[in-house]
Amino acid sequence: MLEQENFVSDWLERLQRESWQLELLISGFSIFLLVQAFPELREARMDILFHSDRSTPPVTAQMFLLILQLACIIMTFNLILHVVLRGIWIGTVGLRSVKTKTNLEGLNYSDFFTEKLKGSVRSLDELIIRLDNICSVVFAFTFLLVFMLFSLFMYIFAVSLFMLFLTSVWPEKPEGVLLLLLFTFIISILSIGLIYLIDTLSLGFFKKYNFLSRIYYPIYKFLGFITLAFIYRGIYYNLLSRLSKNRIRIFLIPYLLLVTLGPIHKINYYTFFPDTSTSNSLYNSNYEDMLEEDVFISRASIPSKIIRQDYLPLFIRYNPSVNETLLKLCDDYTPSKESIFISGIKFDKGIQINDPYVDEEDPAKLLGCLTNYYQIYVDDSLYQSQEFYFHEHRHKDEKGIFTMLDVQSLAAGKHQIKIFNKYFDSEDQLKDGNYTSFPFWLQK
After folding, report:
1. Which helix (H) or strand (E) is 405 found in, with range?
2. Which residue(s) pair with 413 in the sheet?
3. How far apart are CA 184 and CA 166, in angstroms?
4. Among residues 407, 376, 403, which one has the least CA distance to residue 391?
């Protein structure tokens, strides 16, 4: 038994001494993958945003991808820092192989300055050990943060499932005791999450006091299970016991502020350029020949700014977030599809596996619902009796409606496309809204 323990101990010590090679390998490979993954995650998040409504499942999926993007930023920054520190460490080890001691007396400095240097300059051995410890801590801290971000998502996911359950079981507009009960549930869930977050970031505030720790322990166990925090608690408590808590706080507070608040700050010298869209703004997303690969058609598009033909192709993207408004407008027809999960597996005369689709009972009625939602103007002229078609755009499979505008009677020069949509205000009154507007130039 003693021999086995000695073998395990020797193996762990040897592994610790040689772990820097694995750290560098993983860091370099991870940085390469993270740089490649970040734009893909952003495109996936935008894809969900443009191809779904604002219900709980797609919002949760977007939140997950947003957290993954944040994890990519943190890991890339930390691992680059780790590689730099490891490079300094390797350089220091190589320097030690040439000369083990620093000869301050041989520099011929004054006695006063030499004594000051002896008190402040570390020996190479001390510097190597210190750098090695810092590198290992940075490496472990990086993955600890990623696990903690994953825990944050698990908490958001659990709250989303709970809210989805409540909205499916309870009435749409609960009143009286039911409303108070719902409000109490929501506040309780958010409160225990906030308490758990404060304890984690404060390095164990509620665990320090005997009375509070007894009250906090059930929250600790419950949320530890929900967020899967038990996976990384060994790393968390090891770092807390290994390092000074004051030093961790001094480092952690500015680090978290940099990560969370950094992206919403910038230096902007464009004083005479508005940050928000105006009627004078021109965007590439409205012109198909200027669309970038990772940019979606936001609302509507035409082939180019300059039109040389008598007919102008116009594509209007269908936004699933307006489904509720469309259902109210088309109260005489119910679509065959619903905003639910559709499976391609059907048990009809055995098991059949096909692409998931639903046969629409009356596609023409469906098209009429979509076209009546919009009003199209060129300058101040309303285009009526337009013939529309369902269209899936070749750019990024944006779904919408397509029509051809007759512009041969228009004079050469600048013209403005204006598209208005319908919406219901807070008093459930139907009103017209400015959906989008952009110019084009007709060349004859």
Report:
1. strand 399-406
2. 442
3. 13
4. 403
From the list 379, 421, 416, 382, the residue with the least C-alpha distance to 400 is 421
Which amino acid is residue 169, in one-letter code?
A: V
Residue 293 exposed, middle or buried by CB count within 10 Å (0-12, 13-18, 19+): exposed
Residue type, 408: Q
The pTM score is: 0.71
* 310-327 pLDDT, tens digit each: 889 999 998 888 888 888
Q: What is the pLDDT of residue 331?
A: 78
pLDDT band at 66 (very low <50, low <70, confident <90, very high): confident
Measured CA to CA, the distance from residue 83 to residue 40 in angstroms comes to 24
Q: What is the largest CA-CA distance in the chain?
A: 97
Q: Is 172 helix (H, G, I), strand (E, B) or coil?
A: coil
**Amino acid found at 107:** L
Alpha helices for 99-123 (secondary structure H): 111-120
Residue 300 exposure: Cα atoms within 13 Å on the Cβ side:
24
Q: State residue 220 phi and psi, 5-degree precision.
A: -60, -45
Distance CA 43, CA 48 (A): 9
For residue 93, give every residue at least 6 positions away whose Cβ sits within 8 Å of its Cβ, in sequence order, or none.
Answer: 128
